[in-house]
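Response to reviewer comment R2.3. The reviewers asked that we include at least one raw input/output pair. We reproduce the pair for RibD domain-containing protein here without editing.
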Amino acid sequence: MWSYLMRKLVYYVAVTLDGRIAGPGGEYDFFPAGDEQQTAAYSAWTNTLYPETVPTAYRAAVGLADAPNRHFDTVVMGLGTYRPALDNGITSPYAHLRQYVVSSTLESDTDPAVTVVPGDPLALVRELKQEEGTGLDVWLCGGGKLAGTLLPEIDELVIKNYPVAAGAGVPAFDGAFDPTVFDVAERTAFPNGVTLTHLIRR
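Raw output as returned:
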């Protein structure tokens, strides 16, 4: 038995009604956010609760430039999740976190602040979860194939459900058939139709 609380892997992600986290081409600009007032209230609430999930380039604009990390100190993502930032010349999208990109094709020297993991992501996550230190957890940022692979190690889900059906695209979990039960710990509904649900692995 560990003498300290093991870090958790938390999948924090936006999902459509049909379980997609992005469109077929990686699109995510179709997620409805409501009118201006609704969008501002929803963004302020989620940004305050999870400030570390706001990309570094946008933190100052939303008043989070010096905000401490509340839940996570590490982020793990697949190449598909990392690619939009990279395509815009941003090689370190979450500079306020330790960043790991799971990819067998990405160059290892893309950015000194980003660790490229070409091998087994399960081994990586198990190692990260056993670290001692800040008491903060590991954020699984996406994408679907990585989440499917890491499902055995996902301890909690924070799902932002948007009232839109994509019809096709990247599934939240794209892996083998492996029914895994999570219990709802908390659910918050917003006027823009989004619900945020916190679930804990049973």
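Helices lie at 36-49, 56-59, 79-87, 121-129, 144-150. The radius of gyration is 16 Å. Further pairs are available on request from the corresponding author.
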